[in-house]
Design brief:
It contains 3 helices and 5 strands. The chain is an alpha/beta fold and 105 residues long. It has a single domain, classed as Rossmann fold, CATH 3.40.50. β1, α1 and β2 form a beta-alpha-beta unit. The model has no long low-confidence stretch (mean pLDDT 94).
Length: 105
């Protein structure tokens, strides 16, 4: 795990870090911007291959990813409706995400 990418205002970073600590998430940098999913998709692509994937709960991120993105997207979603050609692993629960991420480590 390298960082957290969030599409939230910079003013929420301190609160986000507190929440992450409270719930036992790793202490990593929070990269924040309000520039939308295009920004998040581009930032993730720019970070590859150092960052080889993401856990995200927004299915709309898929439509903003470059078609040649080679990382893995663990999508925290109960939806099974994705036609993306990207490497997307649908995970309906957090337990599923943990299991899938461990499988690829």
């Amino acid at each position: 795990m390298v960082c957290y990418l969030t599409n939230r205002p910079e003013s929420t970073v301190k609160g986000t870090k507190r929440w992450l600590r409270k719930y036992g998430f790793p202490d990593k940098e929070v990269i924040s911007s309000m520039n939308g999913l295009e920004w998040k998709a581009q930032k993730l692509s720019d970070m590859f291959p150092e960052v080889t994937g993401i856990v995200d709960d927004n299915i709309d991120l898929l439509s903003h990813m470059r078609h040649d993105y080679r990382g893995r997207i663990f999508l925290y979603s109960r939806s099974d409706n994705t036609t993306s050609k990207l490497d997307v692993i649908l995970c309906p629960t957090w337990v599923d995400i943990e299991k899938e991420v461990q499988h690829f480590m």
